[in-house]
Amino acid sequence: MFALAGCGGGYGSRSAEAPVARAYPPSQLAAPMPSGDAVATPEPVTAEHHADYGVNPFVETQRDRLSTFSIDVDTASYSFARRKLVQEDTLPPAASVRAEEFLNSFDYGYPTPDAQEKVPFKVHFAAAPSPFAEGRHIVRIGVQAKRVSIQERQPVHLVYLVDVSGSMSSPERLPLAKKSLALLTDTLKPGDTVALCTYAGSTRVVLEPTGIEHRAKILSGIASLDAGGGTAMSSGVQMAYDLASKTLVKGHLNRVVVLSDGDANIGDSSHEQILKTIEQYKNKGITLSTVGFGSGNYKDVMMEQLADKGDGNYTYIDSEDEARKVFTEQVDGLLQVIARDVKIQVELDPSIVRRYRLIGYENRDIADRDFRNDKVDAGEVGSGHSVTALYDVELVNPKQIAASPLVVRMRHKPAKNALHGGSDEAIESAFAMPASAIHASFEEAPESYRFAVAVGGFAEVLRKSPHAASVPLENVERIAAASTQGRRERVELVGLVQKATKLAGKQRGAPIAR
């Protein structure tokens, strides 16, 4: 059925010369498996303003043994799908489902690197026969970043840029955004600063950069925000960068955090000009993350592209529970960067692997030749982030695997380098998958592996992947339910699969939402 998946904020972009045409467009659930390498260029989707990046096809290993992509730790797609299923009682638009962001939304318990290890990542492998497609295996690659304690991390200087336009007035938008910012502010420590500004019909500085020792003043500024007026995003973005420039300190993290439903007119600047501005400030050391709210008129593409260009995380908040998870439990990944421009290149052995397919990362593809081109932008990894990747592979001889079927190479720039005055030389490391990591049966594989397979399968079905045409959601539910270990977020996924099964039954025969 499917293959590689990732977890964590990632912001890699496809190289200008990357093989864009390596994807099938989403199709009907019952569509037959495409033959050959027919491809389609991603096309925009208008209903919910999502982009259709297609679905990776199988690649013959003899023809291309390298799979290269930017790391990605975004999680917005999964939270958005949950909102659609739970709060709106509908299946998410197929184009809104990005498989890697589903996979990145869960903790698989990967051990972190040892303190003495020089590389800030540890790679974990597992593989087993696919439970969805006879004759194929699913390979999981799990990358775990080191954790930095709050005492060890450098000071952070945040600028909250909040959309207070009329479209943000409903309870699940601005009120939830204010609660999210209060949670984030409560995690900050002495030496950190916060500035607050808004944009709607006009922009406004609510709070100049303020030390966290004045926490009550910061929280009061957040509480004072009200919605109303139009939306001119460009002037708000510039104001936020002006504020961030006042606290730009070498060695510290300087970040703008945009909170919006994305339903913004651009203002005097074009969309392309805003992205160019964000990239320019990123090169000066100020990154940008986005946090999405709301539905119906949600502009997923805009929010994703802003974070992509800004080397920041893209998350979506659909509830107070998700806000607590992102801004309290997992906040270290936002506040402490440990590696920049992180690329992954997987080299598969054609004598062992006949063909392969990466699940997800369609819009994180990087040309193989650009893996060592350090001018090509890629993703950022924060403290404790993990990335899970699944490959759907067909082996030459499944019963005779005595050597490593693949090698994972990772290339990154240390967090404190170029943006903060040091060397910008990238570091490359390699990790070979041992043949012993391949299990004889799916049931013998670790439960974290089996749960990741269920998550990937769920995303494949929801996005109408042609490779999931014969995958019943009931099978996905069974696999997920057997691997929950009682964990709340895993039990929740089982419930979402059950809800999707019922909705799919009701909507069977209806046109696919795009």
Q: How would you characterize the overall build of this protein?
A:
The chain is of the alpha+beta class and 514 residues long. It has two domains: 43-142 and 341-397 and 435-507, no CATH class; 156-335, von Willebrand factor, type A domain (Rossmann fold). The chain is 26% helix and 23% strand. The protein has helices spanning 76-87, 99-103, 174-186, 215-223, 233-245, 271-284, 300-309, 320-329, 332-335, 447-462, 473-481, 488-507, and strands at 43-44, 51-52, 59-60, 66-70, 121-129, 137-145, 156-163, 193-199, 203-211, 253-260, 286-292, 314-316, 337-348, 353-358, 379-382, 386-395, 406-414, 427-432. The strands form four sheets. The chain has a six-stranded mixed beta sheet with strand order 9-8-7-10-11-12, with helices on both faces. The protein has a five-stranded antiparallel beta sheet with strand order 3-14-16-6-5, covered by helices on one side. Strands 4, 13, 15, 17 and 18 form a five-stranded antiparallel beta sheet that branches. Helix 3 links the parallel strand 7 and strand 8. Helix 10 runs parallel beside helix 12 (488-507). It is globular and about 65 Å long.
